[in-house]
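Predict both folds.
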Amino acid sequence: MSDDYKQPLTHVIVGQKIWASVIIAPGDVHPAQSKNKMSTASKAIFDGKAPVKKQLIVLAITESKTHFICVYTSTFGSSSKLDPKKVVDSRNWLPIHPAVGVYEALAQPQGGDGLAGWICLSQTILVSIADESVQPLQVFYPEDSVAKIKGKVGL
């Protein structure tokens, strides 16, 4: 891999969705009754030590321009309603239309897939701009949606 390829991702913008390998703090979802029923990603999240590849929404870029400040998204199998057996607190999840939850759902982003989705509000995640696992997606949330998310997470 050439050094040119390792340049920081300066073309990612606030409101854009990215893939990145991150460590998700456990505590927002209940573990399955059996580890055999858990996905590999779920096992990594509950372990809390291994990175898992997740879709994130970039809410801001640090003043030093070295990190993205993000929230992660989940689909819960494209479920339009949260299953109380799976989530610890429904107030920690912001729905993306057509999902319905405690809060008013955000509209689908430009380039979105039209499926129900959920944004975790209980944690923000710092991702290095130089992180080679980052893959920008052509999915963009408008400024008002980003502002709503930032308000919910306290940014």
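Second protein follows, with its predicted structure tokens after the sequence.
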Amino acid sequence: MGKSINRSDDLLMSNKESSIIEALEIAGNYIVCERKRVIPLSMISDYEKFFRFIISKNTTKIHLVIPMSMTADSSKIKNIIESIIPYAEVRVYVSDKIRENIILCSDFS
């Protein structure tokens, strides 16, 4: 099972790490996952190719946190991920706490 996040640990984190933790805090709850990846937007030129490469075939649940600047692409990204892993539960969140990265949290079977 994924590791839960302790807010008291924020004092030991850099500003970047702290903003990532805040971005994972959605509606007062923490997203808990088995694997968390912080991916710079500069690494993504084609959503489909990128997600086909990075998402494991045994993924059962995906939480994707994207910056506000990508709001218009949120449905497109969700549809692409669902086409790659049709049996996985996919949730896309938009956050104003991140700007240059996306956060991909995955659970596996």
